[in-house]
Each structure stands twice: as structure tokens, then as C-alpha cells.
């Protein structure tokens, strides 16, 4: 009997095991979409923006998800991400009223599917040392031959997945991309670099812009008027624009065109004066830009020779290899508190980095309103641009820092009805003032667009990937998007930056900086004073032509040398102390986390045991 | 009174009547703290999240949960108290479930005592607390999975050391299922479907899915089924051994 029972339960166990595996697998396939999203920004739930993009579809869109199922068998991480991507696409398709068709394709090597994938522009990415390659990309087509692709789904970019896909769908629906006029004295587009004799990559911000919009380069030198079908003009770093171009812009604004201006007191990407023979000339060259005539007519005050400094948001910068990074008050990392939460352009951004920016004010007779989008903290001041140009060490800027207590407007919307800056011109169709109120976007920095402040462009398995560490690109695209009038994408973009820095540590860094800066300065002064005296003494010795020092001089010299060593030591101490507070905090936290509870528990357990031993035993 | 609740309480109390429980919790807390801060570099990373903390949980559980689980049944069997337990007015599955729940609650207490690290990241920055809640839940579920395996294997032998080693090995296989180490071996003898089946059984993939902050019904079902299956097997094993 016992044997029979054993086989019975034994086989039940086997059946149950098979059943268990089957149910797990079935539930994997069948039960999708049932989930609770606990993340703060609902990262894993379709946003309203995406839903709007989907409900607005009026022509069918086909999405082809290419995924090499077999080749990625041993890459569970990628497989998990594939599942996430596929489910997101399926959810989108389910919400699009049949306007969105999804096909999942496994392009086997040397198959027809692989050829199609390649013809869309998807590339197989090497996934193993042995040279195996896999596809994991998306191609979308619309009814009019339009194709848009995501070449490869990078798991590191998961937080931007929804946006990337929504963007692709959005690109396919807009049969005509909005036209954006582009005028820049900086070479932001791709091109040929005669110096290195190589193709130059476009700036990431520009590349993103040209993906979303029909960017038309306007030649400032020959600009007479701006085409009627251009709705937005981006003007970057205007230097010595001819009057005709200014007039064209003036009339463009008055007829209701949307203008976005980037000026800069010191554009680091400005290559004027670059001369291989004379490195000095680039340093001395004027790298500022201004829109004087128009600014004046609009009632905007902007000083092209003043740079904004902000102590609170100074970024850590390393100037030479082997030197410790120092905080630079002209290179600023703006956070949420500087970005307007009410403006659709900045509402969802977390960080924007700028460098040597200027600032805007309204003139007294201005009729327009300047609504700040980006503002400095109250620990700010302005300084002549020459201070920045010729000063190698930012700590001097820090030590001479005297905050004015007011907030400087680095970027803003200028809202109102504008008058022409050229009342004397009488061309046909000349407008003296705008009919309706308009808004002009002003930015007092051009470096904000340059890659080095926000994006790392690198090759991921041969694909060009832009990894953003700040929202500068989002800021730029949001602004153009906003001016060209599509707000759905804006609500998706930027909600997903997952950087959550230790604010406490940054606070400590700042206060430590302030506390020790003055001390350091004091010591530095003493040191230079000592050195000055020492030199004096030695020169005096030289003048006397005496080969031997008098005992008095010798004692003095020794004293000075000794003091110099001491001061240097103290200075080193001060430098070291800058980090000490943070280290201390780290140690305290480690003790708190690792030892506190175990110690409390041990004491508690021992006390409990002692109490139990003392307690009279119940007979 | 509900017999499950009675046995549950008796079991849980018995944990804390010996120093072993305290030693276990202290070791768990010391290890998780040290791993988080020294190997995970939580403070140096400068990011207000608990990734550095949770990423070590699978490895921690791999050794600590079998240590809790090994005595569950092996000890009862060795000391003969299993006979006593089974003569109580309590069915087999009730006994299995009650003992499992007590051990799970005990691990839950140990896990809850890691709360300082949660306080720490909230003090240092502004973490996504939803993600942290989900991760704790995922961690607890994973511990439950490990424990159910351990409970079953503990019933299979009267030697605690054997139970411990067996559990570590099986848990390790479940953890790394879905990784080449296991998949290659399975693929060599079984068809592709079986390989996919095995890779869907990995603790790690389900745990990391939950710790992203999304509680997916499928991940919940996976853990509940895993626990249910091993506990059922647990009851069957005891039944089989009873005949010995």
C-alpha cells in the first residue's frame, strides 16, 4: 500500500511541477497590462500626451518591431527590455482605434526580413565577443512612404522609451514638418572641417531640431525677407547683422512670426579670431553677440559685456588635468528652483546647464512684459566679461563675490505688442506695429546649446547615441515646439529624467565652500606678503653686493622660509577640510546604517535574557 | 482559535526565545549595510535611490534564507517532535503553511529593520519612494520564494547541513535560471521551448522587474505560484517520509 501511495504523491509532484511551469509561462503571455505603477512620475503608464498623439492619428501607421529572438537568447536583460518595449507598443496600438498596426519580426540572418530591416536603415548590433549580431529596432511607415526609425532600443534609455516612440509616431503623422528658419553665426550644423579634413558632427541640439523640424538655413548676409511659410525663426549668436536682415526679422515679428533669440556676452563656441599662428588672437577676439537695434525697439536691456555669476549654482570645473575641480560661478547648473514651473517649456525639466551667460532687463519705457523662464538665485552678481576671458582661476571670482540679492533673468518670454525698429522705411507691406500681441523668446546664452553642457554623444555598438545629463536639449526643442505649436510631445518629454542627486551633500559643499574660501584667501594673502618680503630682502642683499648675509638678514630669511612652509601647510589643510565635512557625513551615515540597529538589538537581547534569568522560574 | 494562527505564533515566539534569531538578524543587518555602503558605494554614487541596497539582496538571501529554512522541518524530524506536531488537531497543509508564514514573518522583521537606509536616502536627497516601496515588496516576495524552497528541502532530510547545502544549490539555480550558465546546460538536452520555460523561472528577472517600481500581476503570480508549489511539495515530502 505504502508503495502505491508513494508513486501517487510522487507523480502528483511531477505533474504539479509541470503545471507550475505552464501556468507561469501562460500568465507571462496572457496577463499583460495588469500592473500598479508606483513610480513618482508614473513612468510606466502612458501619459496624456502620448494618448493625444494616438487619438489624433487620422491615417494608418504601421510599426515594425525588429527583434532577433534567437540571437539574444542568452541576454536576459535585453530580453526583459524587449518585453517592455513590445508591451508598450501593444498598449499604444490598443489605444489607437486600429490606426496603429504593430508587427513583430524576427529577422533571421540572410532572410528577406533582414534585407527589409536594412532597407529601413536599421542596423544589426554586435552582442557577443563571437561577433553575433542582433536587431532590436523599430521602423514605422505611414500611407505616404514616410519612414521613421529607432535604430536600436538602448536599455539605458528606458526612461525615454515612451517619448521616443511617441515622437516617431508623431513624426509619421505630420505630413509636413513645421518649417523653422535658422540663423546662426556658430557652425552648429554638420559640415566639413577644413582644419581636420573630416566631417564635423552637428551639435546634438541641432541634430534633434533637424529631426523634428524642417530646418531652413537662412543666410543672414543676404536676408531681405522671411518666407511666409516659416512660422518660427531661431536666431543664434547674431553678430553684425546687416540692416536688411534686422528689418526682415523686425517685420517677421510684427506680422506674428515666432522668434527665438540666443545672444551671449561670451560664446565659448565662437571661433572668431582663431588663428593657428597666433593663439592670442582667439583669446582677445570679441565673442559677444547683441541685437541692439531690435532690443531697443522692444524695450529690452541687455549688456553684451556683462557676465552673470551665481554662487549657489556654480558647477565644479576642472581646468587642467591633475588639478582638483573648483567651483566656477559663471558655469551654472540651474535646477528646478531656477526654472519656471508655470511655463510649458520648463515645467518638466530638472536641470539646465549654462556657461558665461548674460541677462535681460526691461528698459524704463518698455511696454512689453518680460516673463522669466530661467532665473538666477539671489546669490548672484554681474561682472565684466574681460574678467572671465583673462582669468584662468575661478576661485578669484569666488573670493571677490558680492551678491546683489536680486534675481537675474537668463531666459524669458517677452510678451506684448511690438513697434518697428525702422519707422523710416517705407517698403510695400511695411508694418509699423504688430496687430496682435506676440511673444519673443530670449536666451542670454548660446553655450546652453553646445554638447559639452548637456550631452554625451557616444557610440553604442556602432550606433550614435546621445546620452543627456542635463535638459538643455529638451529646453531647446520644447521652446521650438512650443513656438511651432505642438504641445502634446512636450508633456511626454522631460518627465523622465531619473537623476536624483544628494541635495544634502550639495548643500554641505556650498556652505563648506563659503566657510573655507575666506580663510583660504586670508592665508593666500599672508603667503604672498611673505613671499614679497622675502624677495625684497633678497634684492636688498643683491644691491648691497654682499656675498654673505648679515646674521640679522639670515634670521629674518629663516623666519620667512619657516613661515612660508607653515602657511603652505595651513593652506593644504584648508583644502583638505573642504572635503572633510562630506566624508564625515558619509562615515556618520555608515555607522548609523550598519551598526546602530545591530547594537540596539544586541543590548536589547542581552537585557531581555538577563531579565528572564532573574525572573523566578515557575515551578 | 485558528490552528494556523496558533502554530504561527508558537513558531514565531520560538525564534526569539533563542539567541540564534538575534544573531541572524544582526548578521543580516551588518552584511546588508556593509555591502550597500562599501561594495555598492551608496554614498559615493550620490544618487538618492536604493539600487545599491537592493541589488545585494538576492546574494544575501541565497545564504541567509537557507540558514533560516534548514531547521524548519529537519530539526522537528531529528528531535521527533514532528510526530507531536502532526498529532495536533491540525491538517498537514495548515502545519506547513503556519511554519512557513512564521519563518517568512521573521525574515520580514529582519528586512524591516533595514529602515535606517530608507531614512538615509530621504535625508540626503529626494528619492522616488514608490520605487522603494515596490522594491521592499519584491525583496520580501523573493525571500518567500527562497524560503519555500528551503522549507521543502528541509523536510526531505533530517540533517540540517544537508538541507542547507541543498537549498543553496537549488536557490542558486532558480536565481540564475535565464542566464547562460543554466540555459546552455538545458539547451544541450532539451528543446527550445524548455529553454524559454526555464528562463521564465528566474527569481532575478522578476525581482528586478518589481524593483523598478512597477508591480506587475505576472510577477506577483510568479512568486505566489513558486511559494505555493514548493509548499505543496513540502507537504507531499512530509507525507512520503511519514511512511518511513
UniProtKB/TrEMBL annotation, chain A:
<feature type="transmembrane region" description="Helical">
    <location>
        <begin position="12"/>
        <end position="31"/>
    </location>
</feature>
<feature type="coiled-coil region">
    <location>
        <begin position="513"/>
        <end position="588"/>
    </location>
</feature>
<feature type="domain" description="ABC-type uncharacterised transport system">
    <location>
        <begin position="177"/>
        <end position="479"/>
    </location>
</feature>
<keyword id="KW-0472">Membrane</keyword>
<feature type="transmembrane region" description="Helical">
    <location>
        <begin position="591"/>
        <end position="611"/>
    </location>
</feature>
<protein>
    <submittedName>
        <fullName>Gldg family protein</fullName>
    </submittedName>
</protein>
<keyword id="KW-0175">Coiled coil</keyword>
<keyword id="KW-1133">Transmembrane helix</keyword>
<dbReference type="InterPro" id="IPR019196">
    <property type="entry name" value="ABC_transp_unknown"/>
</dbReference>
<dbReference type="InterPro" id="IPR055396">
    <property type="entry name" value="DUF7088"/>
</dbReference>
<dbReference type="Pfam" id="PF09822">
    <property type="entry name" value="ABC_transp_aux"/>
</dbReference>
<dbReference type="Pfam" id="PF23357">
    <property type="entry name" value="DUF7088"/>
</dbReference>
<feature type="domain" description="DUF7088">
    <location>
        <begin position="40"/>
        <end position="140"/>
    </location>
</feature>
<keyword id="KW-0812">Transmembrane</keyword>
TrEMBL record, chain B:
<protein>
    <submittedName>
        <fullName>ABC transporter permease</fullName>
    </submittedName>
</protein>
<dbReference type="Pfam" id="PF12679">
    <property type="entry name" value="ABC2_membrane_2"/>
</dbReference>
<feature type="transmembrane region" description="Helical">
    <location>
        <begin position="131"/>
        <end position="149"/>
    </location>
</feature>
<feature type="transmembrane region" description="Helical">
    <location>
        <begin position="52"/>
        <end position="74"/>
    </location>
</feature>
<keyword id="KW-1003">Cell membrane</keyword>
<keyword id="KW-0812">Transmembrane</keyword>
<feature type="transmembrane region" description="Helical">
    <location>
        <begin position="220"/>
        <end position="240"/>
    </location>
</feature>
<keyword id="KW-1133">Transmembrane helix</keyword>
<dbReference type="InterPro" id="IPR051449">
    <property type="entry name" value="ABC-2_transporter_component"/>
</dbReference>
<feature type="transmembrane region" description="Helical">
    <location>
        <begin position="20"/>
        <end position="40"/>
    </location>
</feature>
<feature type="transmembrane region" description="Helical">
    <location>
        <begin position="95"/>
        <end position="119"/>
    </location>
</feature>
<feature type="transmembrane region" description="Helical">
    <location>
        <begin position="161"/>
        <end position="182"/>
    </location>
</feature>
<keyword id="KW-0472">Membrane</keyword>
Amino acid at each position: 500500500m505504502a508503495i502505491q501511495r508513494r508513486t501517487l504523491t510522487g507523480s502528483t509532484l511531477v505533474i504539479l511541477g509541470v503545471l507550475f511551469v505552464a501556468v507561469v509561462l501562460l500568465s507571462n503571455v496572457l496577463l499583460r497590462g495588469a500592473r500598479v505603477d508606483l513610480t513618482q512620475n508614473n513612468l510606466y503608464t502612458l501619459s496624456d500626451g502620448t494618448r493625444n498623439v494616438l487619438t489624433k492619428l487620422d491615417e494608418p501607421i504601421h510599426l515594425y518591431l525588429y527583434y532577433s529572438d534567437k540571437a539574444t537568447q542568452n541576454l536576459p536583460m535585453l530580453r526583459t527590455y524587449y518585453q517592455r518595449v513590445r508591451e508598450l507598443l501593444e498598449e499604444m496600438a490598443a489605444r489607437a482605434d486600429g490606426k496603429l498596426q504593430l508587427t513583430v519580426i524576427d529577422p533571421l540572418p540572410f532572410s528577406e526580413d533582414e534585407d527589409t530591416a536594412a532597407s529601413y536603415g536599421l542596423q544589426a548590433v554586435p552582442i557577443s565577443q563571437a561577433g553575433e549580431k542582433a536587431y532590436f529596432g523599430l521602423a514605422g511607415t505611414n500611407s505616404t512612404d514616410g519612414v521613421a526609425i529607432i535604430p536600436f532600443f538602448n536599455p539605458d534609455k528606458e526612461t525615454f522609451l515612451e517619448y521616443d516612440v511617441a515622437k516617431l509616431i508623431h513624426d509619421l503623422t505630420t505630413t509636413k514638418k513645421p518649417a523653422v528658419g535658422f540663423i546662426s553665426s556658430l557652425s552648429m550644423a554638420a559640415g566639413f572641417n577644413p582644419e581636420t579634413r573630416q566631417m564635423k558632427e552637428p551639435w546634438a541640439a541641432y541634430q534633434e531640431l533637424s529631426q523634428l523640424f524642417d530646418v531652413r538655413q537662412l543666410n543672414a548676409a543676404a536676408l531681405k525677407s522671411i518666407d511666409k511659410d516659416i512660422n518660427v525663426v531661431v536666431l543664434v549668436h547674431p553678430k553684425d547683422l546687416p540692416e536688411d536682415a534686422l528689418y526682415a526679422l523686425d517685420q517677421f515679428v510684427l506680422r506674428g512670426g515666432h522668434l527665438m533669440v540666443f545672444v551671449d556676452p561670451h560664446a565659448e563656441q565662437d571661433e572668431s579670431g582663431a588663428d593657428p599662428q597666433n593663439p592670442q588672437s582667439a583669446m582677445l577676439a570679441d565673442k559677444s553677440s547683441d541685437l541692439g537695434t531690435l532690443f531697443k525697439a522692444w524695450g529690452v536691456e541687455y549688456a553684451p559685456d556683462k557676465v552673470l555669476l551665481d554662487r549657489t549654482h556654480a558647477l565644479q570645473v576642472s581646468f587642467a588635468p591633475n588639478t582638483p575641480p573648483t567651483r566656477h560661478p559663471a558655469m551654472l547648473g540651474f535646477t528646478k528652483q531656477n526654472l519656471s514651473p508655470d511655463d510649458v517649456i520648463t515645467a518638466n525639466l530638472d536641470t539646465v546647464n549654462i556657461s558665461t551667460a548674460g541677462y535681460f532687463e526691461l528698459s524704463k519705457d518698455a511696454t512689453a512684459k518680460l516673463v522669466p523662464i530661467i532665473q538666477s538665485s539671489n546669490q548672484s552678481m554681474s561682472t565684466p566679461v574681460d574678467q572671465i576671458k583673462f582669468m584662468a582661476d575661478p576661485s578669484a571670482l569666488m573670493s571677490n563675490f558680492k551678491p546683489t540679492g536680486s534675481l537675474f533673468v537668463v531666459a524669458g518670454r517677452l510678451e506684448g505688442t511690438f513697434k518697428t525698429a525702422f519707422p523710416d522705411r517705407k517698403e510695400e507691406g511695411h508694418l509699423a506695429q504688430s496687430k496682435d500681441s506676440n511673444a519673443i523668446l530670449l536666451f542670454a546664452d548660446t553655450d546652453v546649446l553646445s554638447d559639452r553642457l548637456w550631452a554625451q554623444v557616444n557610440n553604442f555598438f556602432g550606433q550614435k547615441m546621445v546620452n543627456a545629463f542635463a535638459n538643455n536639449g529638451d529646453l531647446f526643442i520644447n521652446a521650438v515646439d512650443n513656438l511651432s505649436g505642438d504641445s502634446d510631445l512636450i508633456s511626454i518629454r522631460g518627465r523622465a529624467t531619473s537623476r536624483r542627486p544628494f541635495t544634502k551633500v550639495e548643500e554641505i559643499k556650498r556652505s563648506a565652500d563659503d566657510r573655507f574660501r575666506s580663510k583660504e584667501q586670508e592665508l593666500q594673502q599672508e603667503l604672498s606678503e611673505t613671499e614679497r618680503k622675502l624677495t625684497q630682502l633678497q634684492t636688498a642683499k643683491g644691491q648691497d653686493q654682499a656675498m654673505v648675509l648679515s646674521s640679522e638678514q639670515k634670521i629674518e630669511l629663516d623666519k620667512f622660509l619657516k613661515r612660508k612652509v607653515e602657511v603652505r601647510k595651513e593652506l593644504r589643510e584648508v583644502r583638505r577640510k573642504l572635503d572633510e565635512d562630506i566624508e564625515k557625513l558619509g562615515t556618520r551615515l555608515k555607522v548609523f546604517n550598519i551598526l546602530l540597529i545591530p547594537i540596539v538589538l544586541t543590548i536589547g537581547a542581552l537585557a531581555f535574557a538577563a531579565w528572564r534569568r532573574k525572573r523566578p522560574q515557575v515551578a | 482559535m485558528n490552528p494556523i494562527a496558533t502554530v504561527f505564533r508558537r513558531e514565531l515566539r520560538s525564534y526569539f526565545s533563542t539567541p540564534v534569531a538575534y544573531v541572524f538578524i544582526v548578521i543580516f543587518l551588518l552584511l546588508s549595510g556593509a555591502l550597500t555602503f562599501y561594495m555598492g558605494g551608496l554614498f559615493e554614487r550620490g544618487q538618492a535611490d536604493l539600487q545599491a541596497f537592493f541589488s545585494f539582496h538576492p546574494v544575501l538571501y541565497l545564504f541567509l534564507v537557507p540558514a533560516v529554512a534548514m531547521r524548519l522541518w529537519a530539526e522537528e524530524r531529528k528531535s521527533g517532535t514532528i510526530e507531536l506536531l502532526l498529532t495536533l488537531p491540525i491538517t498537514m497543509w495548515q502545519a506547513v503553511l503556519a511554519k512557513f508564514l512564521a519563518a517568512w514573518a521573521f525574515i520580514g522583521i529582519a528586512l524591516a529593520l533595514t529602515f535606517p537606509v530608507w531614512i538615509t536616502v530621504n535625508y540626503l536627497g529626494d528619492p522616488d519612494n514608490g520605487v522603494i516601496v515596490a522594491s521592499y515588496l519584491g525583496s520580501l516576495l523573493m525571500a518567500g520564494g527562497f524560503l519555500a524552497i528551503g522549507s521543502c528541502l528541509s523536510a526531505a532530510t533530517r540533517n540540517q547541513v544537508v538541507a542547507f547545502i541543498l537549498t543553496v544549490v537549488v536557490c542558486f539555480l532558480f536565481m540564475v535560471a535565464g542566464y547562460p550558465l543554466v540555459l546552455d546546460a538545458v539547451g544541450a538536452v532539451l528543446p527550445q521551448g524548455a529553454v524559454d520555460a526555464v528562463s521564465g523561472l528566474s527569481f532575478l528577472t522578476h525581482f528586478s522587474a518589481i524593483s523598478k517600481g512597477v508591480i506587475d500581476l505576472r510577477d506577483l503570480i510568479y512568486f505566489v505560484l513558486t511559494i505555493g508549489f514548493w509548499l505543496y511539495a513540502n507537504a507531499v515530502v512530509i507525507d512520503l517520509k511519514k511512511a518511513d
